[in-house]
Amino acid sequence: MSGDNVAQFAVRNDATRQLAELGDAAASALREADSAGATLEIKRRIDQLLKALEVPISNPERLRALRAIEALEYQGTTEARQMLEELAKGLPTALITREAQASLQRLAARGAER
User: Fold this and answer.
1) What pTM was computed for the model?
2) N or C end of the chain: which has fewer CB within 10 A?
């Protein structure tokens, strides 16, 4: 592999890492790129990135975030609800946002039952 190819490969790897860090925020763009006649390497990278966003959760940081949401819901304190409300304001398609919204709905339902 020439030096130029190695540099390009490093750039592609860095871009893949950055997309992985974006997580759900990049998912719709990744799906569009996948259907836009991308090269085999790009399709492979996109497929890997999208699989990392699927359930069951394979990314340890996403799993920790989901467990934190569960812990906040379990606590049910005013502070915990405030944190859930902040998380629920995130990107609408993001798993963390949707889970925080679901936690708030469950907490509201439990409060109405009392």
Assistant:
1) 0.60
2) C
The token pair that represents 41 in the structure block: 């390497």
- 6-26, pLDDT tens digit by residue? 788 888 888 888 888 787 778
- DSSP for 43-82, written as a single string: HHHHHHHHHHTSSSP--HHHHHHHHHHHHHHHH--HHHHH
Domain residue spans of the chain? 3-52, 60-113
Grouping H, G, I as helix, E, B as strand and the rest as coil, residue 39 is: coil
Supply 10's token pair: 């490093």
Residue 5, both tokens: 């190819």
**From residue 64, how far is each of 44, 57, 61, 75, 96 by CA, in Å?**
27, 10, 5, 16, 11
Between CA 48 and CA 46 the distance in angstroms is 5
Reading the block at residue 61, the tokens are: 């940081």
